[in-house]
Amino acid sequence: MDFDSIGTATVELLFREVTTNCGTHAAQHQWTEQEIAAAQQRHPEQADVLFHAYDLPQLTNARLCCELLLRAHCRELLERVATGQDTRPGTAVEVLLLTHRASRTAPLTGAAVGLFLRMWKAAALPDPHRHTADLAHYEASLAEDIDRLETDAREAEQHDQRIPDPRPECAGEHLGQPVTCRYATPS
Length: 187
Fold this sequence. Notes:
By secondary structure, the chain is mainly α. The chain has one domain (3-178). The chain has helices spanning 3-18, 25-42, 47-51, 67-82, 92-103, 110-122, 135-156, and strands at 173-174, 177-178. The longest helix has 22 residues, at 135-156.
């Protein structure tokens, strides 16, 4: 299989499929709130921590205005918050955007295409044409190179300021509703 010849075209096609619909600023806030609510359902013991992580999925790239990408970006960051992982390294979506930008400058190597497909799958983005089925071929022959690229890309897309506030202000209400919150200030 000639990895390089199919790579850049596949990256461009997949990217075009999901970035066609950008939302308004209000819609982006709504998507973020919905992803927080879903994360709170998955991790009820961390519901208050997740509520106060609202600013964490800040838009780090203009392409994140696309609903599918923003939601995947939010899900990964919120999962990191809920499980106590480092939120600074680039998300799968940020690595996708980095790889896409690179594909517009020069043809991608086989390892870079493998990285793109790995991140697409990690972000759980739709794949109606089953492009990620090719990932197995890339992983079989280029896994170590893809691993190195992933480490480098996540580091390149790292946002050192993207850390949860260790002590956010809270009046014991979330969205106007009284709650039990570990950050609530006694009145």
